[in-house]
Amino acid sequence: MPDKHLSSQFDEALNSLSAKLLQMGGIVEAQITASLKAFSELNIDACNQVIERETEVNALEVSIDSACVELIALRQPTARDLRLVMAISKAITNLERAGDEAEKIAKRSKRIIEESANYKINSAEIKVSGQMALDLLRQSLDCFARLDSVNAAKVVEDDRQIDEEFRGFVRKLITYMAEDPKVISTALDLLFIAKAIERIGDHAKNIAEFVIYVVKGADVRHISHAELVREANS
Q1: Which of 74, 67, 87 is closest to 217 using CA atoms?
Q2: What's the CA gap between 34 and 159, in Å, rounded?
Q3: Which of 25, 116, 133, 178 is the most exposed place for a label (fewest CB within 10 A)?
Q4: Domain-by-domain residue ranges, the chain?
């Protein structure tokens, strides 16, 4: 009976960690959504709200990471349970950094509003890639919640589309700057926003890779995509 009781407590602690990860993920998703909306609408109040809320994400990361360390010290999990705790610890770091990128989008949008709100650069790619990155993060968190390695591999693949959007937008910005030096300052702000979105996609991809690590016990961060898919589906 005591062993069963301890096992039940451990399962509850693991479930609590997973729930906190998803709670943090929801907040970061909201931050990204708000930052993209602030950029799209050039709304300075919305920018400020995103910036102010960043401390909430930081506090959650510290709290969850501390809970992970405590669980490892007290329960000494092994095998898949240990991989899950380690993956949660790494995933929250990626979520915190994705939150940082949302803050960067808000800060750069604020600069554009304050200094060059009437900019003439077509930034449609930013809106498209921003939605793609947000969707990718949602999918990676869903994969984590269900420990779905097959769809996690798809998230890794889909991140490539965001990278392509980013490279295409960079080429367009270079053309704009070459044709009209007066737009250089705004173009650089847009470049930072596009890069932040590209990084959000990278963090979503990292979280998906941690799902495969938990389920399959294989570190897939530095292998070819073909090998990753084989591992995820094995």
Answers
A1: 87
A2: 21
A3: 178
A4: 2-233
What pLDDT is attached to residue 2?
47
Alpha-carbon span 120 to 142, nearest angstrom: 38
- The answer to whether the CB of 86 falls within 8 A of the CB of 211 is no
Domain 2-233 sits in CATH at 1.20.58.220
DSSP assignment of 22-53, as one string? HHHHHHHHHHHHHHHHHHHHT-HHHHHHHHHH
Contact 112, 42 (CB under 8 A): yes
The number of beta carbons lying within 10 Å of the beta carbon of residue 217 is 11
User: Cβ of 178: how many Cβ atoms within 10 Å?
Assistant: 9
Give the span between the Cα atoms of 162 and 128, in whole angstroms: 9
Task: Yes or no: say if 48 and 113 are a contact pair by the CB < 8 Å rule.
Answer: no
Which amino acid, residue 154? K
What pTM value is reported for the model?
A: 0.93
CA nearest neighbour of 34 among 18, 17, 57:
57
Residue type for position 132: M
> Which one-letter amino acid corresponds to residue 39?
F
What would the two tokens of residue 159 be?
């991140």
Give residue 73's pLDDT. 94
Question: How many Å apart are CA 54 and CA 49, to the nearest integer?
Answer: 9
d(CA 146, CA 211): 9
Distances (CA, A) of 200 to 31, 155, 168: 12, 12, 17
